[in-house]
Amino acid sequence: MVNHPNRHGAPVIVTTQHRGVFFGYISEYTPGDPIIHLKQARCCLSWPAEQRGVIGLASDGPKRGSRVGPPAPEMELRDITAVLQCSAGAAKAWESGPWN
User: Fold this and answer.
1) Is the pLDDT score of 1 beyond 80?
2) How are beta strands 11-16 and 72-78 bridged, if at all?
3) How many CB atoms are closer than 10 A to CB 41?
4) Buried b (16+ CB within 10 A) or exposed e, 2-16
5) Are 38 and 16 in contact (CB under 8 A)?
6) What letter would DSSP give residue 49?
C-alpha cells in the first residue's frame, strides 16, 4: 500500500487492467477505489529490459530507451490494478526525462 495514499502530491506509478502504466502525482485517491486522479500524469509506453519492469520504474524512474509521453495537467484513471509509491530519485528521473 502506498504510504499516505490520500496525501496530495505523492508521486506514484499506476497500472490498469488495460495494461496502462502511468506516472503522476496523486490529486485524489481512496485506497481500494478503482479510480485515481493524477496531476502531471505521463504514460510509459515501453522501457528497456534493464529497467526491470514496473517496479524498476517506481524505484529508479525511466531509463534511457524508455518511451514516455508528455505530461497531461490532470488525468483520471479507472480500473486500477496497482498503485506504487515512487522513490524521490524516481520522481526526479520522471521529471528530468533521461529517456530522451
Assistant:
1) no
2) unpaired
3) 22
4) beebeeeebbbbbbb
5) no
6) G
Predicted TM-score (pTM) of the model is: 0.88
Displacement of CA 82 from its chain's centroid (Å): 10
8 A C-beta contact, residue 2 and residue 84: yes
Q: What is the pLDDT of residues 25-48, one digit of tens each?
A: 999 998 888 999 999 999 999 999
Q: Quick check: 91 and 59 in contact, CB under 8 A?
A: no
User: Which triple of cell numbers denotes residue 41?
Assistant: 500524469
Average pLDDT over residues 84-94: 95
86-91's contacts with Cβ under 8 Å and 24+ in sequence apart are 86/11, 86/12, 86/13, 86/23, 86/58, 86/59, 86/61, 87/58, 87/59, 87/60, 89/60, 89/61, 90/11, 90/57, 90/58, 90/59, 90/60, 90/61, 91/11, 91/61
